[in-house]
Structures are given as C-alpha cells and as structure tokens.
Specification:
56% of the residues lie in helices and 14% in strands. With 251 residues, it is α+β, with helices and mostly antiparallel strands. It folds into two domains: 6-171, Beta-Lactamase (2-Layer Sandwich); 185-249. It has a five-stranded antiparallel beta sheet with strand order 2-1-5-4-3, sandwiched between helices. Strand 1 and strand 2 form a beta hairpin. Helix 7 (176-200) crosses helix 8 (204-217). The mean pLDDT is 85.
Length: 251
C-alpha cells in the first residue's frame, strides 16, 4: 500500500483540528495535539508551544515530549534560543545546524545538543499584528525547514490563535484574558502531572497521557480532570484509583 501523500496528511490534520474548534474543547489538549501534528508532518523530532503572559514573558503551554518540554523551559530560564528571538522579533527563526550558533546562544546550544537536537526552528503566533507566542520545532538531524514546512507550521499556529481567540477579536486589550486562561489551565495540568507522578510512580509524560486518556474516555476536559484531582478532596480517591487502573492497563 502506498504512503498517504504529505499534502493529504496536512489537510487531514488541519480538518481534524478545525473540527475540534466547532465542538467543546480543552485548550491545553488541543494545543498539545497541535504540537504532535507538527512532529508528525514536519521533518522534526519534537515541538513545543509558548504563550506570552500579561507581562510579556513566555510560558510553556504544550510540548510533544519531556525532552522538548525541558528544552523549552531551559530556553526561557536562560533567556536565549530560537523561541526567545522569534518572540522578540516577530519573525520566523530557522537554524539548520545549531553548532555554529554557540556564540549567539552559548547556554542553549549545549542544552539542545545534549537533548539530541541538531537543528532548531521557531514560528511566531501572531494575530492582528500582536505576537502571542511561538511554536518551537526541534530536529534530530541537521537541515533547514523549506518554505512548505514553514507554511505548514505557520498554518497550525494560525489555528492555535483561532482556538485561543475565537470569542475575542484580537486587540491589545482582548488577547490577554484568553491567554491568561490558557496559561492558568497549563499550570493546573502541570500540578496534576506532578501529583500523579508521586502517587502512581509514573513518569511526568505518562502522567499527562493518563490524564488525557481518562478525560477523553469520560467526555471531560483535560483541565477539568486535573483541577478536580488537585482541588476536590472528596472525589480525588476515586479519580486516583481510576487513573491507577488505567495505568495498569497500559503496562
């Protein structure tokens, strides 16, 4: 059987994500799915999505793997790297080989190489001239993103903007509430991941997968499940038991 053409896979991904916008969706789950589609469709190993908070500081919202998550967080801590530059300039950044950029990013380059990445790219999330965040793309091998790849990345970031702002016409005053809500949701999910890691003895990545699978199987929002786990002490034991059972079934 012949492989599905890349153009068809891109269109299928766009249709799938847009379809989710027409239904009741969880923003963290949707943005995580968007980064996963990037890793599937582009010649990269991992992806991460950063949003700006009201003080214009980038915050991690979604990532395809723990390696991508840790590198994005390191990038923010070091205040250097492709996403930092992309957000500052509002322009795409594409580095086919990170090694020659050691003087530009003296802390980020060793961290990226240590995580197994050889090329890095970033695409701005922009609405009405306002840069809302960046999409970071990390490759395991050297190589540039061609124009088609950059267009796919930019298309998916536009969809992310629509997801965040669908009820808020983008202006400097209206973009902050939905961004703040998305960042708050991510904090709750991160707390729940850490809680499950300690309770069930699983990795942070597996904890997220358990929350996501449970939410989808029970028709709930990922963020609502995470919030219930962290704040509802009465239903928490039953929820932890259900997640533990789910974890056992995945062994």
């Amino acid at each position: 059987m012949s492989e599905t053409p890349r153009e068809t896979r891109v269109l299928n991904a766009v249709v799938e994500i847009v379809d989710s916008l027409l239904d009741d969706f969880d923003v963290v789950d949707l943005l995580t799915g968007l980064t996963e589609r990037c890793a599937e469709l582009l010649d990269i190993k991992a992806a991460g999505l950063l949003l700006a908070d009201p003080l214009h500081r980038l915050r991690l919202v979604a990532a395809t793997s723990e390696d991508a998550r840790e590198l994005e967080l390191f990038q923010l801590q070091a205040d250097e790297g492709p996403c930092v530059d992309c957000y500052a300039t509002g322009q795409p950044v594409s580095v086919a080989d990170i090694q020659p950029t050691i003087e530009r990013w003296p802390r980020f380059v060793p961290a990226a190489a240590g995580a197994g990445f050889a090329s890095v790219h970033a695409v701005p999330m922009r609405a009405a001239g306002i840069v809302l965040g960046t999409l970071g793309l990390f490759g395991a091998s050297r190589g540039e993103l061609n124009e088609a790849d950059l267009l796919v990345g930019q298309t998916l970031t536009h969809i992310a903007c629509v997801a965040l702002l669908q009820e808020h016409p983008p202006t400097p005053l209206t973009v902050m509430p939905p961004l703040r809500s998305a960042l708050t949701s991510r904090v709750i999910v991160e707390q729940a991941k850490g809680f499950l890691r300690e309770m069930l003895g699983v990795s942070v990545e597996e904890a997220f997968n358990l929350l996501r699978i449970y939410a989808r199987e029970n028709g709930e929002h990922l963020t609502d499940v995470a919030r219930r786990l962290m704040t509802d002490r009465y239903s928490r034991p039953m929820l932890v038991a259900a997640l533990a059972e789910l974890a056992e079934g995945r062994v």
